[in-house]
Amino acid sequence: MKYIAINFLQSILLIIVTPLFMGILKKFKAILRGYKGSSIFQVYYDYQKLFSKGRIRSSHSSFITQIGPILSLGASITAVFMIPTFFSSGETYLGSLFLIIFMMSIVKFLNTLIGLDCASTFGGMGTSRELFLSMLAEPVMFLTIMFLYFENKSFNIFTISFNNSSGAFYSIGHILAAISFFILLLTENARLPIDNPETHLELTMIHEAMILDLSGTDLAFVEMASQIKLMIFLTIFINLFMPFGAATTLGAVTILKASVIFFIKILVILFGISIIEISMTKSRLFRVPELLSAALAIAIAAISLNYFL
C-alpha cells in the first residue's frame, strides 16, 4: 500500500510541475539567445487564459474535435501513472514499456484524428507528416526496448530502473542506446531539428498544423497533453538510462534526496535541448529519415555490443 501511495504522489507531482519545466525550457532558450524572456510561470498563465476563452470549432468538424482533446489529455495523464519518477521499488505490476507506448500511441492517434477532422489543408498536411515520422521512429523505439530487455531481462520500467539505480557502470551499448532513444525523444515530441514548436509557418509545420484550428479549452487540453508527453519521455529516458540516485527504499530523507536529483537531471536535459534548439535550424522533411536511420543504426550497434561483449 505504501508503494502505491508513493507512486501515486510522484505521478501527481510530475503532472503539476510539467508547465513549470516547460517555462524553464523557454527561459533557458531566452537566456541563451541573449534576452530576458518571460516568467517561468508563464505557461500556467497561458492555461488560465485559454480556459477563460470559449471554443470555436470548424463547421466541418464532428464529435471527434469535441471529445478528442480531453481524451488525449486523459491518455497522457494515465501514462504518467505507469512510470516511476524518483522512486522505484521494482515491485509493481505497472510499468510495461509496451503499455506505455500504447498510451502514447493513443495520444498521437487522437491528435491525428483532430487534424483530419477539421477538414483543413494544414491539418491534413501536418497529420501526414506526423504519421510519416512515426513510421520511421517505431523501429528505433522497439530496438531500444529490445536492448533494454537483453540487458535487464525485463520489459518493466520499474524493474529496469531498480536494477540500474546503482549507476556503478554503464556499458558502451547502454550509452549508444541512450543516444538512440534521445533522438527518438526529439522526434516524438516535435523538437528541433525535426520540427520547430515555436513556428506557425505553413510550409514547415508538423505538430502545430494538426492543432491549428483549435482554440480555448480544446487547445489547452491538447497543449497540456503534448507537454505531459514530453515530460513522460524525459522521465522514461532518465529511469531507463540514467536512474542513478533514484530511491529504492521508503524514507523521508531518501525520497527527498532522490526527488532533488531527479529534478536536477530534468533541468540538465532541458538545458541540453535548449542548446540544440538555439544552435540548429529545422531540417527539411526528407532529411529527417537520415537522422532516424542513424538512430536505428546506433540501436542495432547497441544490441550487437550487448550480445558480443
UniProtKB/TrEMBL annotation:
Question: How is the protein disposed in the membrane?
Answer: Multi-pass membrane protein
TM spans, by residue?
6-25, 63-87, 93-110, 131-149, 169-187, 230-253, 259-279, 291-308
What does the UniProt keyword field contain?
Membrane, Transmembrane, Transmembrane helix
Q: Where would you find this protein in the cell?
A: Membrane
Question: Which is a Gene Ontology cellular component entry for this protein?
Answer: plasma membrane
Record-linked Pfam families: NADHdh (PF00146)
Principal place where this protein is found? membrane
Name this protein carries in UniProt: Hydrogenase
What species does this protein belong to?
Answer: Clostridium muellerianum
